[in-house]
């Protein structure tokens, strides 16, 4: 009844909480802002008063004092359709949300593909709106990383753009997976089975993952003595449709191929369907390995051998690195490189 009566008189203030808890206004402010410089007894009294009075902190006023918005942005350079349908993006969002769980940070998500979307998002990405930014699915021509650093906004990349894989690339804060090593594992597995005409359906070459997985493929086929024949490489865009089109093209140019390493599970799903339509048995005629270990890999026919990448852990590490940057905390490295692992199923 006390709470109901208090709420009816208007929004409870910091002073009202202090009076109810029997502490000073500064103590209430420190509790609300998460400061450790409060005794357990005082913290408990303030929290009880907040619950009783229904006090909600004024975020705008708090931002004036702390110079923080307690908000971070996850900006994905893809269409909303891809973000909400492809498992990779869902895994990243789950990981980022998990990584922010023990912080006061709120996450907002933006998809940037059209010029209008880009203009709107760029206008919003200032320190008046967010404390930091996570960037995902970057293409080489994307100016956002440079723009945000010039604005002084802490930024962490999910995966490196292709240009950052080159010697002398500018330093950046990023979390990535071992794309080269994962691709190498996939091709070595195929080579150990006696496959000698190993094709590759590559990802976009303006994205770091596409470039790195192609590099791992080339390293492994050279090491296996199978030769690097450009007729055995086709370029997709990580979508199922591009996997279908690339597999058709490879079968037309190199009908003698006996294996294919595909740079994403969605593309591999399309490739499997094309092989089935062409009357090629998997794995007897053509062995197939994908990359991601997405749920679709287990549902494929036959179930897909693939390279596992820890997508949710990638999101968690992105959030952890960004929070460290925002708080000014010392970290051992600007970079986190997560391991990959080959998952054996029936397609290879």
From TrEMBL:
CDD domains: HTH_LacI, PBP1_LacI_sugar_binding-like
Pfam family, one: Peripla_BP_3
PROSITE patterns to which the protein is assigned, alphabetical: HTH_LACI_2
Key words of the record: DNA-binding, Transcription, Transcription regulation
Membrane as UniProt keyword: no
Keyword Transcription regulation: yes
Taxonomy, superkingdom: Bacteria
All copies of domain HTH lacI-type, residue ranges: 12-66
Record protein name field: Transcriptional regulator, LacI family
Species this protein is from: Micromonospora rhizosphaerae
């Amino acid at each position: 009844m006390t709470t109901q009566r208090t709420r009816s008189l208007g929004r409870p203030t910091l002073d009202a909480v202090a009076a109810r808890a029997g502490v000073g206004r500064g103590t209430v402010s420190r509790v609300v802002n998460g400061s450790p410089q409060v005794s357990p007894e005082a913290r408990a009294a303030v929290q009880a008063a907040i619950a009783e009075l229904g006090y909600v902190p004024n975020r705008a006023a708090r931002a004036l004092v702390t110079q923080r918005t307690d908000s971070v942005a996850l900006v994905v350079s893809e269409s909303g359709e891809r973000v909400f349908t492809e498992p990779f993006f869902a895994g990243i969002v789950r990981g980022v949300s998990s990584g922010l769980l023990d912080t006061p940070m709120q996450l907002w998500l933006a998809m940037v593909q059209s010029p209008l979307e880009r203009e709107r998002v760029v206008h919003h990405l200032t320190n008046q709106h967010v404390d930091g930014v996570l960037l995902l699915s970057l293409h080489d021509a994307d100016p956002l990383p440079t723009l945000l650093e010039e604005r002084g906004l802490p930024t962490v990349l999910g995966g490196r753009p292709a240009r950052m894989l080159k010697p002398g690339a500018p330093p950046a804060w990023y979390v990535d997976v071992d794309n080269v090593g994962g691709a190498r594992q996939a091709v070595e597995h195929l080579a150990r089975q006696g496959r000698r005409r190993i094709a590759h359906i590559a990802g976009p070459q303006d994205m770091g993952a596409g470039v790195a997985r192609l590099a791992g493929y080339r390293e492994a086929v050279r090491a296996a003595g199978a030769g690097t024949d450009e007729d055995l490489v086709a370029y997709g865009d990580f979508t199922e449709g591009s996997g279908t089109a690339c597999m058709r093209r490879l079968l037309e140019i190199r009908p003698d191929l006996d294996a294919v390493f595909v740079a994403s599970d969605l593309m591999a799903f399309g490739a499997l369907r094309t092989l089935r339509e062409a009357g090629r048995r998997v794995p007897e005629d053509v062995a197939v390995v994908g990359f991601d270990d997405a749920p679709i890999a287990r549902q494929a026919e036959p179930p897909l051998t693939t390279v596992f990448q820890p997508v949710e852990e990638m999101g968690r590490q992105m959030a952890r690195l960004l929070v460290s940057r925002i708080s000014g905390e010392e970290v051992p490295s600007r970079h986190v490189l997560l391991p990959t692992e080959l998952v054996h199923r029936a397609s290879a």
